[in-house]
Predict the structure.
Amino acid sequence: MLRSNQNKVSAQTGMGSSSVIVRCHRIVLPDYRHLFRTAWDPEFVTSQLGWDGADAPKITMASTLDLGLSIEDVRIAGHAQPILLRSYRPATDGTVLPIVLYFHGGGFVRGTLDDASIAATIIARDTAAWVISVDYSLAPAFPFPAALEDAYRAAQWAVANARGQRADPKRIGVAGHDAGGNLATCLAALARDRGDIAISAQALLAPLLDPSMTRMADENKVRSPDMGMTECSQCYRAYLPNAAQRLHPYAAPLESRRLAGLPPALIASAQHDMLHIEAEKYAAELIAAGVPTEVTRHVDASHNALAASPAALADVTAFFRKRLRAPVATLAAQ
């Protein structure tokens, strides 16, 4: 099925308060949009709490009626170093929530939890899901497979803590932008192969999928691309310093011949992005492998802009509402 409008082209298969709350050296504004327009002194924003003790406190960033979310930072053991998770939990009437793990972009070499705030907030609010944003280890200091193994540990933590959050460990989705899209789909493959975590859906926004860089659009034919071949190559070399790693299916999803059994996918590409061809090629490969897949190209978007695109995020939340819906028997028991 093909549908289009002025914003996108898509193919598919198969609390009212104006007060400011400050806790733990962080500023919280009731309307989340201000979080992304305000520049802060880093010394003010950075938490001074220690994390060495097992009972180290969580950092509560926000809990307002306008936002309707409880947002907390939690530090866990990662693959090579401790990593930070940011939990976004909507207020509910006791309904058991699905879980979504979100991975920020930045080409494997940069990016922070703050970069993921818009997407994570919208997914948590509009899907009604417990969203966990993952501050995975960055290359070149921590090359492959550190980021992916951090992602897996975050998934294990989510499963282990699901009951305390009234969340369902059997309804897990993964999502990410740019390098985060790579980590999301590779985590789905890793979880499938290890067999102890079930991932039910994946949503990829302008994902990095092809370290060979043989499926990129012509740089001269893409209007004002905000990620070029040189930058992309530098990112891959930092994340995958060994050339042989660039064919590994947990790093190069497009090279994988074992796509069957992956969870249903939503892939969003951007017209003004040199990577839109590989994103759509991956969608075709998933479809060929029998994976229910939806792919949408956003004609007015660039690579970086897609991470906070209202249209793209609306598609993501609709996709997760559909794919992470509780079974009828579960709803009757709640």
